[in-house]
Amino acid sequence: MEEKIFDLLTEMYAEMRKGFKKVDMRFEKADINELKNDVLHIENIMINNDKALFDGYRQIYEKQQEHDKRFDTIERKIDDMNLIIKKHDVEIRIIKEAK
Question: Which of 30, 42, 75, 87 gives 20 to 30 Å between its CA and that of 16?
Fold first, then answer.
């Protein structure tokens, strides 16, 4: 009697294992396809974001270069004005002393 129960349980266990393997294979296939689609979707999003970030960086860099040139021009003009002011100060002092 116990041997029959054991054989029955062994047979049921083997059939259940086969059924679980089929279910596992279905889930694996579905999960792999889903994961592939998700990865491709994420890659597309990242590529677009990467391009947008690079474009933004390039625009900021170009503006910064433009501002640096303007700053250099203004700095040169201020230096030239300082020289002229010093020259005028000397001339004014000379004129005042001459009176």
Answer: 30
| Average pLDDT value for residue range 49-68 | 88
The pair of structure tokens assigned to 48 is 């677009």
The span from the CA of 93 to the CA of 58, in Å, is: 52
Confidence at 52, pLDDT banded by 50, 70, 90: confident
HSE (side-chain half, CA atoms, 13 Å) at 68: 6
Residue with tokens 């700053």: 71
Q: CA 68, CA 80: separation in Å to the nearest integer?
A: 18
Structure tokens at 4: 């029959």
* Burial zone of 93 (CB within 10 Å; 0-12 exposed, 13-18 middle, 19+ buried): exposed
Residues found in the chain: 99
Measure the CA–CA gap between 49 and 57, rounded to whole angstroms.
12
Reduced to 3 states (helix: H, G, I; strand: E, B; else coil), residue 99 is coil
